[in-house]
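As a warm-up, study this chain.
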Amino acid sequence: MPKAALARVLKGALLRADRGEDAVSSGIEESTLEVTPLLLKRTGSLGGLASLATLLGLLGTVMGLIEAFKVVAEAPADQKSALLTSAIAVAMNTTAFGLIVAIPVTMVFMLLSGTTKKIMDEIDLFSLKLENTLSARKK
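Now compare it with the structure written out below.
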């Protein structure tokens, strides 16, 4: 069986070409339903991972700022500056690390989504063209 999604769909139609238009249409539909989940398999996970990384960075920022306010309220005067700087560094580092993960994952998600859409559009276009060609041949 071919690995390329379009080839699998077209093969599903061609295997039924001698059985009539309805069989060809069913072959296209069946093959499309088989390959669609494979195309979309991990695309959604990337979007979720990017969102999760952003939220974890935000959570670290909030926790760092809470620690910074706690230091200002409770620390002895001679230690406030060092402890405040440390808490703010935690807040900024978690923000940076969250964005370091989220930005490239979002870019990959966008590229993969575009590629998936292109493949799905090609499947729709070429399977329709094949169906029309096969039905015109019968007439």
